[in-house]
Structure formats: structure tokens, C-alpha cells
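=== RUN LOG ===
request id: a7f3
mode: sequence -> structure
chains: 1
length: 273
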Amino acid sequence: MLFRHRTSRLQFQPPRRGEELIRFEHLRKSFGPKHVFDDLELSVYAGETLTVIGGSGTGKSVLLKCLIGLLRPDAGRILFEGQDLTGFREEDFIDVRRHVAMVFQGAALFDSLTVGENIAYPLREHFPDMPPEELRERVARKLALVNLPGIEDMRPADLSGGMKKRVGLARAIATDPEVILWDEPTTGLDPVTTETINQMIRSMQQQLGCTSIVVTHDMVSAFSLSDRIAMLANRRIAQVGTPEEMRASTVPEVRAFLDARRHELRTQEEVAR
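=== RESULT ===
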């Protein structure tokens, strides 16, 4: 069926897999006297899973929020498929958020809505004329994709932490975005649920062909998930590389960060054997 969607200022021409999709260019951001980014540069390529690591307070989540307009950089540019987003108004970012969806750390579900209503929320926002039967079908399809079929009538309060994360993902992919942003997706979860969420991230890349940017402190997840890893330190990107390149890094900030998580990484290697 056909339904009306918002007229978009964006004129996207999606790149092929492996081509540059997003570029953060000379980015600067401060909160009062606290300088978060200073001339930050980073490219993200179509179809990859890029994980952003770094110590607390280095601006990992700020980077994601700048991309979708929840925060505005003080200087520099953010390019998405060649278009500069930094001059966009709030209403323009409604369309950006259809293409770039975010799974928030706490899932950010509306407690007053059912699971089905939560997932339908962005569909109603972006496609106000979508017929009810198409809406229900789309919601059911997304729940099945995250292995939670048939829970449309449940309330967020009745869900476990892992289930909330998966419902948050179902809501994020409701509009079939090209990019999924993951803000600390495994924080507070037990190891079994953490692995379930990691499998979900890999599954979205394989089944939907989407690009993922993952912010995490969990180095086990970072090394198992990522095509590339970017290290934030001293208000800029200290290094970007494959997991193997980051393990072998001699960059002082990267080395210090990984050494501080030596036990975590050793456990991962033991499991891998």
C-alpha cells in the first residue's frame, strides 16, 4: 500500500558497501569550560560496524548525539552521504532520524505505552498515513526480527533488561534505517544477555545490511563485534584500526586504555580457546 511520508530536505544517494558514509570533520564541542572535542576527525564506511571506545567523559555518546541533532557541535562539519548536517534545523533532523536510528543505553521506552505502541511510535511520526494493518504488520515483523514475537501487548515494566534492549532495537529499526547507533548496549547486563545483544548487532549488519556505530566500555564486545575500532582520547580520535591493529597498537593512549582492561581481554582470549 502507498502512504504519505514527510517531504525531506535530504537527497540521499547511498554509497556502496565500503565507501564513506559519514564524516566528522574538524569537530569541536564544549560544555562551558569542559572541552570535549577539539578538531576531531573520523570517517565511517557503509556496511561496517565501527566501535568507539575511550574513558568515561571522553565524549563517546556526545559524538552519536551530534550526528542525529540531539546536540550541536560548536564548529566543524558532519557529513552524511555527502550532505552537511550542521546547518540543519530541528525539523530537518526528523528526516535524518529516519535514516540514522539510535538504541539508547536504557532503551528509553515509553512506560505508558505497550511494546507494540512503542515500536509504532516512529512509524506514526515518519509515515502518518500508514494504514493500521500495515502498521501492525511492520511492528510484528520487527519484533520477530529481534526474537520477541507476539509481545505487542506487554508493558515495558514487565520486561527484563535484555528484552527492553531488544524492544529498543525493534523500535530503532522500525523505519528501516541505514545506520544504527548503539549507546552502551551491554551496560548492566549479565554475560549471557550481553552475548545475545552482541549477536543482535551482528545480525542487523548481516540481515539488514546496515551500518552500526557502537559506543561501549566492554572490550570483549568491541573486539568480537567490530570491523574497526576508534579510540577517543584527549578530545580527538587517537587511532582507528581493525581489532588486530588496535591490539598491537603502540599509541600511548590506546596502550594505556587496553592495559587497564587487561583482565577483561585475558578472559576473552581464554573463552576463544
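=== NOTES ===
The chain has one domain: 47-70+96-272.
The first strand starts at residue 20 and ends at 31.
=== END ===
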